[in-house]
Amino acid sequence: MGTKRGRGPKANRASSGVRLVAQGAGIVKRTQQSPFDPAGSDEVDYHVREIKAERLNGAIPQWLIGWEGLSDKEDTWEPIEHLVGHEQDISAFRERRKLESAKEEVEAAAKKKARQVASPSKESAL
């Protein structure tokens, strides 16, 4: 009984990243997967315009980032390691969100109190 020998592990399968072969020199180039992926972006520099939202992807926190010069359709969810140097922006976003939440709670309580004043209870009508 003989064993078959292949040309290496997964030699004919495509890798997990998207790969394009450049014409001519046989140089392999990857397409850029995100603004932080260095492939094909030697000249482009992306800057955070605003942090719009926060979520947990599993146990990993991510932030929805609006990029300068790009439309809202091109916003991306980024993990903390892609936002090095923006710790103050993240803290400011969290503080702003906390203040907005507190403001909404105060407004909800005021509306509830206004409804109670506007419609007296049945006991006071007796």
Chain-wise SSE layout:
Blueprint: E1 19-21, E2 28-30, E3 48-57, E4 60-67, E5 76-79, H1 87-118, H2 122-125
Antiparallel strand pairs: 1-2, 3-4, 4-5
InterPro entries: Chromo-like_dom_sf, Chromo/chromo_shadow_dom, Chromo_domain
Biased composition (Basic residues): 1-10
Domain Chromo: 46-105
Write a structural description.
The chain is built from 2 helices and 5 strands, in the order βββββαα. With 126 residues, the protein is an alpha+beta fold. The protein has a domain at 45-117: OB fold (Dihydrolipoamide Acetyltransferase, E2P), CATH 2.40.50. The strands form 2 sheets. The chain has a 3-stranded antiparallel sheet, covered by helices on one side. It has a two-stranded antiparallel ribbon with strand order 1-2. A hairpin with an 8-residue loop joins strand 4 and strand 5 (76-79). The protein is elongated, with a radius of gyration of 27 Å. The N and C termini lie far apart (99 Å). Residues 1-28 have low confidence and may be disordered.
What structural class is derived from the secondary structure elements?
A: alpha+beta
Relative strand content: 15-25%
Which CATH C-level class of the domain at 45-117 is it?
Mainly Beta
N- to C-terminal distance: 99 Å
Number of helices: 2
Sheet bearing the most strands, described?
A: 3 strands, antiparallel
What Rg is obtained from the alpha carbons, in whole angstroms?
27 Å
**Total number of strands:** 5
Domain Chromo: 46-105
Pfam family, one: Chromo
Biased composition (Basic residues): 1-10
InterPro entries: Chromo-like_dom_sf, Chromo/chromo_shadow_dom, Chromo_domain
